[in-house]
Every structure is written in structure tokens, then in C-alpha cells.
Specification:
Blueprint: E1 4-9, H1 16-28, E2 38-43, H2 46-55, E3 62-65, H3 82-88, E4 92-95, H4 98-104, H5 108-120, E5 124-129, H6 133-137, H7 141-152, E6 166-169, H8 183-201, H9 203-206, E7 211-214, H10 222-226, E8 233-236, H11 243-251
Parallel strand pairs: 1-2, 1-8, 2-3, 3-4, 4-5, 5-6, 6-7, 7-8
Helix pairs in contact: 1-2, 1-11, 7-8
Length: 254
């Protein structure tokens, strides 16, 4: 049985002192027994990663980056590498978020290159996929997500030995809008993604890969979403920068 995972994407919020205050409150709000049911990740801004990792040295909460570049080092002003994230204490990294696609022009080819670099660097990428409102209304949502998953996973290998990557389904029309997919809509797409993974990697491996839901997930809808067969947790945005909301979402796994 796949262990649930709840990841908080803090986006461009919280300076260093605010980040420490937030993670302190989150850490205090979690009972140690919750980690038997779920893995917990927080993804602060780049400048806050190291101090948050230092604070969490004796906690079971893990830390991830919000993005990284495909190269190890070089003249790429403003970018950050997998090596740098690891040296700061990261174990995970979010790749392909819709905001990176929308605002910074990232495409599936670049995301695929980042996936390869993350995995070969021993980071676990959380690959984000999802359709826009127009694509859903035109009944192209399954086609869109299928193409994203297959393109971003081109030549990416997976195995039974260890977790190579995680997928997060985030319908673009639900991110930061307060409108979320129903549990049934989310489960439909998660099931489709599971089928794609089965096609790519076989049934055994596809059943091990965790698929998260993101898109205005909060403490009011998380319980119903987490009950779905193929929803293995959540990638939480706005609700993750409020300690009370985020801890309630994590605790709802139980």
C-alpha cells in the first residue's frame, strides 16, 4: 500500500524569519504518529531552504526546492542546480509547475531534461501536470495530461528498488482560484495517470508511484480527496503557508 504524502509549496512567500516561524508552528502542530501514515515535505523559497533544513534536523519533515535548472553549473544567472539544493539539505524538488510553464515559458522538453538531472543527482522530483479550463471544457483534459506525462517522462527509468519520482496532478483552473476538482474528477484523472504509468513501466512499478492532487486543496476537502483509491496525498499551495490549515490537511490523512 502506498504511503500518503503531503507537500507544501510555499511559492514566493515568507522571508527567512517568517519561514522559521511557520515551520516551527507546523512542527508543533503535528503528532509524531502522523508520520506512520504520511510523509511530509515543505518547499520554501530558495533563500529559506538552508535555515529551514537546519531547523528540521531532528524532525521527520523533509524539504524540497520549488525548481532547479537542467545543468550542473555554469553561466546561468539566477538559476539553481540540483547539487546546490542537495547541499542545502533538499531531498525533493518540484518540476513543471503550471506557474513555471505559464510565466516562464517552460515546456515539456525542458522539464524532461530537468527530470533527468534531478534523478541522476539523487533528488526526487515532483512532476506537475494538469490542464487549463479551456482544455477541460473542450474535453481535451485527458489528452493534454497524457501528452505531458509521456513527454516529461521520456527516457526516464523507474524501478522497484527506490522511489524515482512523484507526480502531482494540478488542474490549472483550480490553482489559487478557490475552485477545486471534485474528488470524483480528481480520481478520474489520477486513474488515467496510473494507466499511463502502467503502460510505461508495467503494473508493479505503476502501483508504487505516488500521485498527488493539487489545486486549491484545503482542510475542508482534503479528507474526501485522500479517500480516493489513486490519490496518494496532496501538493498544497496557499493552505501550506498557514500552519493551522496545513497541519489539519496532514492530520486528515489519519
Amino acid at each position: 500500500m502506498r504511503k500518503k504524502l503531503v507537500a507544501g509549496n510555499w511559492k514566493m512567500n515568507k522571508d527567512i524569519s517568517e519561514s522559521i516561524d511557520l515551520i516551527s508552528e507546523i512542527n508543533k502542530g503535528l503528532n509524531s504518529s502522523v508520520f506512520d501514515k504520511a510523509d511530509v515535505i515543505v518547499c520554501p523559497t530558495f533563500i529559506s531552504i538552508y535555515p529551514v533544513c537546519e531547523y528540521l534536523k531532528h524532525s521527520e519533515i523533509k524539504v524540497g526546492g520549488q525548481n532547479m535548472y537542467k545543468e550542473t553549473e555554469g553561466a546561468y544567472t539566477g538559476e539553481i542546480s540540483a547539487k546546490m539544493l542537495i547541499s542545502a539539505g533538499c531531498r525533493y524538488v518540484i518540476l513543471g509547475h503550471s506557474e513555471r510553464r505559464q510565466y516562464f515559458g517552460e515546456n515539456d522538453t525542458l522539464i524532461n531534461q530537468k527530470m533527468e538531472k534531478a534523478i541522476t543527482s539523487n533528488l526526487i522530483p515532483i512532476l506537475c501536470v494538469g490542464e487549463t479550463l479551456s482544455q477541460r471544457e473542450e474535453n481535451k483534459h485527458i489528452q493534454t495530461v497524457t501528452e505531458q506525462v509521456k513527454s516529461c517522462l521520456t527516457d526516464i527509468k523507474a524501478s522497484n528498488e527506490q522511489e524515482k519520482f512523484i507526480i502531482a496532478y494540478e488542474p490549472v483552473w483550480a490553482i489559487g482560484t478557490g475552485v477545486n476538482a471534485t474528488p470524483e474528477q480528481a480520481e478520474e484523472m489520477h486513474s488515467e495517470i496510473r494507466g499511463i504509468l502502467k503502460e510505461l513501466y508495467g503494473e508493479d512499478i505503476s502501483e508504487q508511484i505516488r500521485i498527488l492532487y493539487g489545486g486549491s486543496i484545503n482542510e475542508k476537502n482534503s479528507t474526501d480527496l485522500f479517500k480516493m483509491k489513486n490519490i496518494d496525498g496532496g501538493l498544497v499551495g496557499g493552505a501550506s503557508i498557514k500552519a493551522e490549515s496545513f497541519t489539519k490537511i496532514i492530520n486528515s490523512v489519519q
